[in-house]
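Thanks for the sequence, V.! I ran Alpha-glucosidase right away. Repeating your input here for the record:
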Amino acid sequence: RPDSDWWKSAVVYQVYPRSFADSNGDGIGDLRGIIEHLDHIQLLGIDVVWLSPVYRSPQDDNGYDISDYQDVDPVFGTLADLDELVTGIHLRGMRIILDLVVNHTSDEHAWFQDSRTSRTSAHADWYVWRDPRPGTTGGTPGAEPNNWGAFFGGSAWEWEPARGQYYLHLFSKKQPDLNWDNDVVRAAVYGMMTSWLDRGVDGFRMDVINFISKDPGFPDGAVLANGYGDGTPFFSYGPHIHDYLAEMKSTVFDTRPTTVFTVGEMPTVTPEQAARFTDARTGQLNMVFQFEHVDLDHDGVKWNHRPATVLDLKRSFGRWQEALAEHGWNSLYWSNHDQPRVVSRWGNDREYWYESATALATVLHLHRGTPYVYQGEELGMTNGTFATLDEFRDIESLNYYDVATNTLGLAPDDVLTGMRRISRDNARLPVHWDGGAHAGFTTGEPWMPVHSNHTWLNAAAQVGDPNSVYTFYRRLIGLRHSSRIVVDGTFTMLLADHPTVYAFIRESIDGRLLVVANLSDEPASVELDELDGAELLLANHARTPAGRFDPWDARVYRLP
Ligand code: ISL
Ligand code: CA
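Predicted structure:
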């Protein structure tokens, strides 16, 4: 195996700095807090730490709105702290990747501040500016260049009187989209990326990177329930997306002496597109984050819940395993800072908390691909409780509440029910380090209250306990590192039509592994010839007879 493929055997741990650990008592997690807890990450067996944004930012979207790509926001610390974090991670034999947010900047970035002043400013063409619709008066309702809605509510266009034009913002109006069709913009981004690699970082997680190339016609989209048009067909796989990423690869990645880790976050990406992005011969990135499985439990609008079954999950993952079997590579994730907690979403965070957290982990980690662990997932952290609206912090959730109750006329209680289930805030509660005040996250007042279950669900209780969720994750990660089958093996789904038992075989020249998990609150019995003579390697339950599975029973066998 060439060393350039090291990312195939890696496990990534995502740190969302604001919620990880606070070192100075201001209630907000910071870089020194991460430095203090590196042993927790190393002991888990992690290879790569992905750091969500710590750049200078007005924090409109918790750092995904960047006003200076070359500096650290004072709320998180200093550049010297970041250097120390990079060194600390490297000293432990791990690597670090930064979040690259270059579809948009903050409206407070110097580039945008200049761009908005006039049509002749130095940065005039750095953002996506368009005139009002012909025959309308700019700044009045309906004058927007097209009907696209922004992901965080309202129109995707904001009027700028100084230019007499609108700028595009696919997210909040404080996140104007960069104009990637401008060579100078692309060169500035590549230069910035190179400077971070020179500073010692090992790669990038690229925020909504499939959105950077827009259809120049900016056509209206099909009208959605919120009254706005759906622009995604016109920017999620735009005309130059492969060209721009290929240029980034040849300019930034291919000129480095060692392999740069690259993962593109790509909402709406299809298996066929993902194969094109990640094909080692002709693609541009190591892997992408796809959204199919995390979109299964809603009707197209994330707040509108519809139940998803184990069969839905099996079919979705199975399709992706197949599509990227020959060429390309999968990313495997249940959780991140935008998704609710997996044990609450797909598991049972009450009666079968330990069992379901570990069963879901087993299934995910043993697919073919690179697994991601989101901070606190290794402890089985659960969704928040959110009694009232004022406990939510996330701009997406708060904007949605406003639109849903005022414009769409939905009942506040129903809106809150949807938010409790799927809001990004579920993932952003402070990490539980111990059972003491504020879970050991801060000595001050946390920016978001800690969950009451931290008294028993915390790192101090789990790290040395052989029967904890943390220790189980450690074993799973250890299995990947000690078995080439987990990294290289082919994937074959078994019992494809069984409603609750998730079973598959991984096979390579090094042997065969069988993974079987009952993802349900009910016991299950299955006929699997492969179980005869199979040697149990890892399990989350005391043994029951071979073909019988207790609720959330998960087992990994080596086959003869
Ligand atoms: O959570 C979502 C909205 O329902 C997702 O669509 C999310 O907006 C999408 O995954 C893009 O996410 C990334 O870019 C956003 C940022 O808010 C997210 O935190 C980030 O992961 C804009 O930068
Ligand atoms: Ca702090």
